[in-house]
Amino acid sequence: QVQLVESGGGLVQAGGSLRLSCVLSGPIFSINGMGWYRQVPGKLRDFVAFITSDGSTSYEDSVKGRFTISRDSAKKMVYLQMNSLKSEDTAVYYCKADYRNVWTRSNTSSWGQGTQVTVSS
User: Fold this and answer.
1) What burial class does residue 63 get, using C-beta atoms within 10 Å of its C-beta: 0-12 exposed, 13-18 middle, 19+ buried?
2) Which residues contact 112 (CB under 8 A, 6 or more apart)?
3) Helix or strand run (H / E) with residue 86
4) What is the per-residue pLDDT across 91-119, written as a single tens digit (0 to 9) for each?
5) Lower CB count within 10 Å: N or C terminus of the chain?
6) Of 20, 2, 5, 34, whose CA–CA distance to 91 is shortest?
């Protein structure tokens, strides 16, 4: 069973930093990419950042220059370094992995359980 577990969330003052981590475990054939999304109550889950298997990155406009996504392929981990945090960054942050199923080789995705990030102004 494939699982994603996030860590690193918490309470931080505006202007501060946090680093989120996510580890993928379980049987997979290969990882196509991993990323971060966030959600506030009553709203849809929004894209934050993504990193592909070849290291290409993409960011949502409001986090460009403040957030950095990185990965450790050997450890099946993805990180999100968040600097210059703002109150509007407050949300539950979810890790997502796009990968190929170990048995069928089909493309599929899994989500973590989420980690709360609260930025106080």
Assistant:
1) buried
2) 3, 4, 5, 6, 22, 94, 95, 96
3) none
4) 999 999 999 999 999 999 999 999 999 99
5) N
6) 20
Token pair of 16, please? 């501060």
pLDDT given at position 25: 96
Residue type, 114: G
Nearest to 111 by CA among 11, 52, 39, 8: 39
- Residue among 23, 32, 68 at smallest CA distance from 52: 32
**The residue count for the chain:** 121
pLDDT (0 to 100) of residue 44: 97
